[in-house]
Write a structure and sequence with these properties.
By secondary structure, this protein is mostly helical. It contains seven helices and four strands. It is globular, with a radius of gyration of 20 Å. The two termini are 36 Å apart.
Length: 186
């Protein structure tokens, strides 16, 4: 991923609009629009909801902003620690990243859903624990009307079904944890 696309995205998030980002980056508003269009096409997702008073992040945009901040700090660290290493950061679905690794066009991929491919070595970096958070100590007393589900994708849904089969039905679902948390705290 082009680092300028990352910086442009974060400037829009910080300023709340394309005009503010264009002023801070000293480029035209059309350049900002072109960069974001390119980023959204690369990711296959819309990152912003555009309105007259500015922009707001979509669920995909919110998720991407959290990841992007980490990526920018990591790339800066890499430049300091290994200045002779050329970096090109790519984002995409796990299947696409794994295919690129198998083809040899990527050297490294970080994904939560690796797939076994010939010539690709998989190393687990973290082991996440699935946790159910509830105000009721007895989960059997929690009904579907009180259950909020955060949909993190197919792998998560499969693990969730195994660990908590009695919570397959739910009255409300979110595609990202941050808005779900905001909803709970209201």
């Amino acid at each position: 991923m082009d680092i300028e696309l990352a910086r442009t995205f974060l400037e829009i998030v910080e300023t709340g609009n394309f005009i503010g980002a264009s002023k801070r980056l000293n480029v035209t508003q059309s350049t900002i629009s072109m960069r974001i269009r390119s980023l959204e096409e690369t990711l296959g997702r819309s990152l912003f909801v555009r309105g007259r008073s500015g922009v707001t992040l979509t669920a995909a945009g919110l998720q991407f902003s959290l990841w992007h901040r980490l990526m920018l700090s990591w790339s800066g660290w890499m430049r300091e620690q290994a200045p002779d290493v050329a970096l090109r950061v790519e984002t995409g679905p796990a299947e696409w990243l794994m295919q690129r690794l198998a083809e040899g066009s990527l050297d490294l991929a970080l994904t939560y859903a690796p797939q076994n491919r010939p010539g690709v070595e998989i190393e687990q970096l973290v082991d996440e624990t699935l946790v159910l958070v509830a105000t009721e100590a007895d989960h059997a007393r929690v009904g579907p009307e009180d259950y909020l589900f955060v949909d993190w994708g197919e792998e998560f849904e499969a693990s969730h079904g195994i660990e908590y089969p009695h919570f397959e039905m739910h009255a409300m679902a979110f595609s990202h944890g941050t808005p779900a948390l905001d909803h709970l705290l209201e």
